[in-house]
């Protein structure tokens, strides 16, 4: 009867969504285990017509044997309490634990195991103690934040980087989102070059480069894109050169964390970046193939 009442309370908590914030099932199992233990001790004391204290005192002798035989169960029991008390995971959280091949949504949390529904619809049963002892990723913070990170680079062919001519700069002014940057950068460079007027050697003067202009364009494009979260970090940075060219990294967040939506936004963004590169006189790096001969 007590177990039925506990199950009913667990079902009510699940229906009302309380288990989303706190895994009630773990506590229900803990209460069941304690109730069962008390029931066994009381029953044995009644049958033997002895005080329950006598049976409890005898537990010390069997402790070592019990810990050896039920080591995994005890570890899982303690870990389950830690997971529940510290709220390390909750129902419907997206977690990833590569060592156990788990990458999906938490469906059930018990005292000894955690059930994960992977994205390929397979099910992983993780020992609760493994989540305490080993590293895992809980992606729920990302989902709750409302933004999903894009962090991808396009490798620029080094041989295509050069200074821009005045004619090219005038042509690029036709791009609305670049006008402010060109205006401010032109004045900055002009002021610097005036200070160097006494030594007008080519190497002493500053000029706009096609790579710098392209980087400014991508940054402005991201800030004008309705699919990019405007209250999170937006950055386009140049990474250390590699044998595959100069990586130009896009770092931004979509304003929706849905996987399909995120992949669509990211693909559209880089489709545009690769397509617009020739306008700046740049080429993406690509390994030589037989088609290039």
TrEMBL record:
GO BP annotation list: cellular response to osmotic stress
Residue spans crossing the bilayer: 30-48, 54-81
Keyword Aminoacyl-tRNA synthetase carried by entry: no
Entry keyword Transmembrane: yes
Pfam families per record: MS_channel_2nd
Lineage: superkingdom: Bacteria
Protein name (Swiss-Prot/TrEMBL): Mechanosensitive ion channel family protein
Source organism per UniProt: Vibrio harveyi
Record-linked PANTHER family: MINICONDUCTANCE MECHANOSENSITIVE CHANNEL YBDG (PTHR30414)
InterPro entries referenced in this protein's UniProt entry, alphabetically: LSM_dom_sf (IPR010920), MscS_beta-dom_sf (IPR023408), MscS_channel_2nd (IPR006685), YbdG (IPR030192)
Every Mechanosensitive ion channel MscS domain range: 72-140
Gene Ontology CC annotations of this record: plasma membrane
MF annotations from Gene Ontology: mechanosensitive monoatomic ion channel activity
